[in-house]
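Folded chain entry
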Amino acid sequence: MIWPWKRKSRKRMARIVIEGPITGSTRKLVLKALKQVEEREFPALLLRIDSPGGTVGDSQEIYSAIHRVKEKGCHVVASFGNISASGGVYVGVAADKIVANPGTITGSIGVILRGNNLSKLLEKIGISFETVKSGPYKDILSPDKALSAEERALLQELIDSSYDQFVKAVAKGRGLSDEQVRSFADGRVFTGDQALSLGLVDELGDEEDAKKLAAKLADLDEKDVKPVTLGKPKKKILGVIPSGQSFSKLIETATLELTNSGHILWLYRP
């Protein structure tokens, strides 16, 4: 699609917000917004991240799309909000610069995979599964049985592979060696202040400071530029009801937990 206001966009800044767990729905919204940034030739993008992370594939697709936007000449600055952990960090390191609040919760660089072993509960209530499978590991992480030593070893290899991908992305994005990243990439979380000393972020500041930095990188007037927010999610009914927002987040968290049981996640779970 050819945007009729393309030239005007060349003097403006785009803004995309990644809020809450990174899932398939997040990916769709963000990729669509990044495509608009590319087509409208915005010279700068302010990427606001307030997320504990999420699914691996969705985080990687957003990361790759940010790099495509940068290749087109767009300067990207990430602003970490209350929390930008795990997959939120992975997405953030694709930016040219990262600005975090001193008290931002970040880090949690690592991988988690959880399944539910309900075998004892099922036994108590008299339920058993009959399984026919093509190979010994086809029902790995099935809720009706505990993991065997062999299954645990296979899953650990899977986790290690995903972890290596995470470490390399952080090292590349932050100009650090793999060894430097591994020294703090053990799942721990940091404040923004601690992240600065580790080289995980570039500056301490709020979203306004991040906006000024993006304007500076793109040679825009930081006083006059007003970011254009793209990819706004549709408001849910619960979001406009008093106390509904908290309930909506509770449902979102529970849904993520249930639907992604047995999935590899880059997610901070406090």
User: Anything to note?
Assistant: The chain is about 40% helix and 20% strand. The chain has a mean pLDDT of 89. The two ends are 43 Å apart (CA to CA). The longest strand covers residues 75-85.
